């Protein structure tokens, strides 16, 4: 997966938006105004994604491409390198999990607005 494929995949999610709230070097994807993924444009080979704490530990133990979230709460965020042995599908699953965690944390009214 490259940065363009990642961007396209994230923007296919219901209610997903992109922006640069932390400066022009970090592309941020949100749902309901809450961040679910960040990627640096300088080093576009890795992204930060939200993760269930238990699953985060499992992924880190299983894949060297998954480490505690760089500049993030390391309990809830992973940094994921895209140029390793993780498959396209596995990367999509990590993105899906992050999006779902954030979406499900939104108030029901906001969820309904997003899903229509």
Automatic annotation (TrEMBL):
Organism superkingdom: Bacteria
In Pfam terms, one family for this protein is YjbR
Name recorded for this polypeptide: MmcQ-like protein
Cross-referenced InterPro entries: YjbR, YjbR-like_sf, YjbR/MT2646/Rv2570-like
